[in-house]
From TrEMBL, chain A:
Protein name per its UniProtKB record: Molybdopterin-dependent oxidoreductase
InterPro entries, per database record: Ald_Oxase/Xan_DH_a/b, Ald_Oxase/Xan_DH_a/b_sf, Ald_Oxase/xanthine_DH-like, AldOxase/xan_DH_MoCoBD1, AldOxase/xan_DH_MoCoBD2, AldOxase/xan_DH_Mopterin-bd_sf
Residues annotated as domain Aldehyde oxidase/xanthine dehydrogenase a/b hammerhead: 21-141
Pfam families linked: Ald_Xan_dh_C (PF01315), MoCoBD_1 (PF02738), MoCoBD_2 (PF20256)
Annotated GO MF terms: iron ion binding; oxidoreductase activity
Keywords: Molybdenum, Oxidoreductase
Coiled coil: none
Keyword Oxidoreductase in annotation: yes
Keyword Oxidoreductase: yes
From TrEMBL, chain B:
One Pfam family, short name: Fer2_2
Protein name: 2Fe-2S iron-sulfur cluster binding domain-containing protein
Keyword Repeat appears in the UniProt entry: no
Protein's organism: Bradyrhizobium cajani
Keywords: 2Fe-2S, Iron, Iron-sulfur, Metal-binding, Oxidoreductase
Coiled coil: none
KW Iron (keyword) present: yes
Ranges where the 2Fe-2S ferredoxin-type domain occurs: 1-77
PANTHER family according to UniProt: OXIDOREDUCTASE WITH IRON-SULFUR SUBUNIT
Gene3D superfamilies registered for this protein in UniProt: 3.10.20.30, [2Fe-2S]-binding domain
Superkingdom per UniProt: Bacteria
InterPro entries named in the record: 2Fe-2S-bd (IPR002888), 2Fe-2S-bd_dom_sf (IPR036884), 2Fe-2S_ferredoxin-like_sf (IPR036010), 2Fe-2S_ferredoxin-type (IPR001041), Beta-grasp_dom_sf (IPR012675), Diverse_Oxidoreductases (IPR051452)
Length: 795, 161
């Protein structure tokens, strides 16, 4: 008999056994009888008109079964890929929302845009057939950068989207900000680029679809973070498949980071194709294919201004951003640089007036959508960079200026001027903790030691807050969400007392099978080993919105907590009957139902058994069975935050930046499993370090070609790039989630880019350097040092 | 062509097209799907297996290279005879949370075991340098490095027994 392993413990992960022994079940591992192979033919041009497609040679090739194109999609009357958010400008005019066909119709708008799908007996034959497809393109000029895309005379992606602007969005009190700027003693200004990123989960995307004519049912296995949402978007809005005839399964998924939280055209094409060819169809992306089709992240060009009084108090903050949407609107696309960006510009500071204007712009690039952090890293980067600029210009210490403006612990709940109200937090506590853990007081000694070797050492801070636990449906609905953002959980207690949980979130590395089992073990007093978590299958799990926005524990865990409460309530009714006591007198503690003030009790297992053997049951008031379901919709976002401190060394000979030390003290609320939380922080931080130092998705302006299209051209962080990081938590409890949890999946990626770049700028500040755009590659730093009095611009 | 080799300790003969990659043979023909394919440029290391005791990226190796050779994949790793434990490196990854999504894990383990076998007394720098050809997107590598050092120590201790 195993033990209860509850909240705060760090059991080893339940999911590890299968992954460690090579017995995971990823989509690409699945084989179906009679399976065919599909290959997508993608546009090699950034922008072109499709004059015609000649399928004859491809269809005649050995093994080729079918070729599908945009004309077939049109002939079958299928829908366009839907966008889940509809934002509006300040006058309430809705965003421009051109159709996003699953296979291009008439025109292609980015390198990688899907033109045709070739199905054959084997992947080799499908590839050979694809080579024989003759597509006649009339190539048009491409535009890939946001600055270029909004210029007069720029290539236009859509006839009815003037100047390529999807939406001119704004937030905040413009007049109050202007008035504050007029009174300012100092105004700090900063122009910056938030570099375009490619998520690169290690498992490439893949899908298999199957159609059963006998039942008229479809099954889609897909590398998705949200199978129920795929079922709804694809079934109801694209393919017109009734929900009860469509099963979507996302089994083991090898990392997501946002890349797999969208409904992709590939999923729809494959599902549609499976019925047309009457055989299962499988597609597995190559890594190179992922580079030109996985949704990209970030890609902002921003101008920011911070108004301060003579003591360094922030009076107002004004931000103007051009955000790249790529060639079409992806599932969450327009929501990311607007609703998940503007409301975070208050940071952990008391800035009374904030105004943000974001122009959301179409370009001939892969659609841009959420990538780990999604909007909040961009906001944090702007704010934490300009705070350093202001401190430097006013001659105030960078820690001191933060302290002067920080929201004190006792001021929570704190209403910001940009919609959100922080429920709890202690940014000063996180800052003090990080200063001590990073041994900042001896930094001077380390800097001198570096200098003696001819190296420049710098220290950078980022004191940040984010909004996660997506999301209160009511709030999201006001901001343009076209769906709800609750979560659901079912707790099924078997007659033997073992428990199966069906939950709508999706585990793709976060350790949910362990964390959620701890919650159940803790609340029901059942052994940890007696709890299994089921997710990722629309036929097994009631419903769910999936995993993204650090929502799984915050929203899904809350639904689970609520469902276990219902199980306990039902258990009390059963115990009241069995123990012949009033229901109000039944107490539940440590896995036992007992009558208050007596030694009469029943174990959880006894109650579970009785629930399924209802002899002598008062059936008129008590149903047999012990299974409860709960939906949870949060009342507010949660607001994790913290302080990150990066220490870097710059080699002026080569321009190489080495990350020497990294310290993070984060407030993630209640910690269920500290081992897993630490792992999430490590991984998140390194993804942010990747953005700051290594990663950059680069397009060629005229042709629209992606120049960083493989792991050899796009630099991912590797083991030898990194030091041992110090991470710790300094938690205040969330006041509105059932367990006080805040979420931890994205904090690392949100806090770290600013800390690293602030450290790089600090290391070079004696040369007059005031800003460095990301990524701070050796090339960029070396050029900067050759011309040290000028700020380096994005290349 | 017909190829005979030792796979995870068992004599194996397969009929296979010579242009097949070892990773494809394992995954598609032999149903050993623990060896993963994460890229197409030999960069990610998810496909690492041991060929005659040395780590190789099976996504860039054609099947004729197997003829007469000994191949060890993730499915062939074993703990001490008679124990119900996994290989010490697998145990170390579980103990130190050296994996999250699990996709890079088989390749990481195969590389780590080769590193530990090659050089007893690995330093942190040795491990970081040795894992340069294996990409993980989830862990930030910290717990992988800790796991490899612990697993290597356990392998050495077991050898000394």
């Amino acid at each position: 008999m195993g033990n209860v392993i509850g909240i705060g413990a760090a059991p080893k992960r339940k999911e590890d056994q299968r992954f460690l022994t090579g017995r995971g079940n990823y989509v690409s591992d699945i084989k179906r009888p009679g399976m065919t192979a599909g290959v997508f033919v993608r546009s090699p041009h950034g922008h072109a008109v499709i004059r015609g497609i000649d399928e004859s040679a491809a269809l005649a090739a050995p093994g080729v079964i079918a070729v599908l194109t945009g004309d077939d999609v049109k002939a079958d009357g299928l829908g366009s890929l839907p966008c889940g958010w509809g934002i509006s400008d300040a006058k309430g005019v809705p965003m421009k929302e051109p159709p996003f066909p699953m296979l291009a119709q008439g025109k292609v708008r980015f390198v990688g845009d899907m033109v045709a799908f070739v199905i054959a007996e084997t992947p080799e034959q499908a590839n050979a057939g694809a080579e024989l497809l003759k597509i006649d393109y009339e190539v048009l000029p491409s535009v890939v950068g946001v600055l270029e895309a909004v210029r007069p005379g720029a290539p236009q992606l859509f006839d009815d989207v003037p100047n390529n602007i999807c939406c001119d969005w704004e937030l905040g009190d413009k007049a109050a900000v202007e008035s504050a700027f007029r009174k300012a003693a100092h105004v700090a200004k900063l122009s910056l680029v938030n570099n375009r990123l490619i998520g690169n989960p290690m498992e490439p995307r893949a899908a298999i679809a199957e159609y059963e004519p006998g039942t008229d049912r479809f099954t889609l296995w897909t590398t998705s973070q949200f199978p129920h949402v795929v079922r709804f978007l694809m079934g109801a809005l694209v393919l017109n498949i009734p929900q009860h005839k469509l099963r979507v399964v996302a089994p083991d998924v090898g990392g997501g980071f946002g890349v797999k939280q969208f409904h992709y055209g590939e999923e729809a094409v494959i599902t549609w194709a499976a019925k047309r060819v009457k055989r299962p169809v499988k597609w597995v992306a190559s890594r190179s294919e992922g580079y030109v089709s996985d949704r990209h992240g970030r890609d902002h060009v921003t101008e920011a201004e911070l108004a301060l009084d003579e003591t360094g108090k922030f009076l107002a903050f004004r931000v103007k951003t051009l955000a790249n949407m790529g060639g079409y609107l992806s599932t969450f696309g327009p929501n990311i640089p607007t609703n998940l960006y503007g409301p975070l510009l208050g940071g952990v500071y008391t800035t009374p007036a904030i105004y943000c204007n974001v122009k959301v712009v179409f370009t001939n690039t892969v659609p841009v959508d959420a990538y780990r952090g999604a909007g909040r890293p961009e906001a944090t980067f702007v704010l934490e960079r300009i705070v350093d600029v202001a401190a430097s210009e006013m001659g105030i210490d960078r820690v001191e200026i933060r302290r002067r403006n920080m929201i004190p612990k006792e001021a929570y709940p704190y209403q910001t001027p940009v919609l959100v109200q922080y429920d709890s937090g202690d940014p000063m506590g996180c800052l003090d903790g990080a200063l001590a853990a990073a041994d900042v007081k001896n930094f001077g000694v380390r800097k001198a030691a570096s200098a003696s070797k001819g190296k420049f050492r710098g220290l950078g801070y980022s004191t940040y807050v984010e909004a996660c636990g997506l999301a209160p449906s009511r709030f999201a609905g006001r901001l343009g969400a076209r769906g709800g953002l609750y979560e659901s959980a079912t707790v099924r207690v078997h007659p033997t007392g073992q428990v199966t949980v069906m939950i709508g979130t999706h585990n793709h590395g976060q350790g949910h099978e362990t964390t959620f089992a701890q919650i159940v073990s803790d609340k029901l007093g059942v052994p940890f080993e007696n709890v299994d978590i089921v997710f990722g299958d629309t036929d097994r799990v009631q419903f769910g919105m999936g995993t993204y926005g650090s929502r799984s524990l915050v929203v899904g865990g809350a639904a689970l907590s609520k469902a276990t409460d219902k199980v306990i309530a039902k258990g009390k009714k059963i115990a009241s009957h069995l123990l012949e006591a009033a229901e109000v007198d039944i107490q539940f503690e440590s896995g036992k139902f007992s009558v208050a003030g007596t030694d009469r009790s029943k174990t959880f297992e006894e109650i579970a058994g009785a629930a399924y053997v209802p002899h002598n049951y008062p059936l008129e008031v008590l149903e047999p069975g012990l299974e409860e379901q709960a939906y949870y919709d949060p009342v507010n976002f949660t607001y994790p935050g913290g302080c990150h401190i990066a220490e870097v060394e710059v080699d002026p000979e080569t321009g190489t930046v080495t990350l020497i030390n990294y310290t993070a003290v984060d407030d993630v609320g209640t910690v269920i499993n500290p081992m897993i939380v630490e792992g999430q922080l490590h991984g998140g931080i390194v993804q942010g370090v990747g953005q700051a130092l290594f990663e950059n998705a680069v397009y060629d302006e005229g042709s629209g070609q992606l120049l960083s299209g493989s792991l050899m051209d796009y630099c991912m962080p590797r083991a030898d790039h990194l030091p041992m990081m110090k991470v710790a938590t300094h938690s205040t409890l969330c006041t509105h989630t059932p367990m006080g949890v805040k979420g931890c999946g994205e904090v690392g990626t949100i806090g770290s880019p600013a800390a690293v770049i602030n450290a790089v700028v600090d290391a070079l500040s004696h040369l007059g350097v005031t800003h460095v755009d990301m990524p701070a590659t050796p090339n960029r730093i070396w050029r900067l040092l050759q011309n040290a009095s000028l700020p380096v611009a994005a290349e | 062509m017909q190829i005979s080799f030792t796979l995870n300790g068992r004599p194996t003969t397969v009929e296979v097209e010579p242009a097949t990659l070892v990773a494809e043979l394992l995954r598609e023909q032999l149903n050993l799907t623990g060896t993963h394919i994460g890229c197409d440029t030999s960069q990610c290391g998810a496909c690492v297996v041991h060929l005659n005791g040395l780590p190789v990226k099976s996504c860039t190796l054609l099947v004729p290279a197997l003829d007469g050779a000994t191949l060890l994949t993730i499915e062939g790793l074993q703990g001490a005879p008679g124990s119900n434990r996994m290989h010490p490196m697998q145990e170390a990854f579980r103990e130190h949370h050296g994996l999250q999504c699990g996709f890079c894990t088989p390749g990481m383990l195969m590389t780590a075991i080769a590193l530990a076998t090659e050089k007893p007394g690995l330093t942190e720098a040795d491990v970081r340098h040795g894992l340069e050809g294996n990409i993980c997107r989830c862990t930030g590598y910290q717990n992988i490095v800790i796991s490899v050092m612990a697993g290597a120590a356990a392998m050495n201790a077991a050898k000394g027994e």
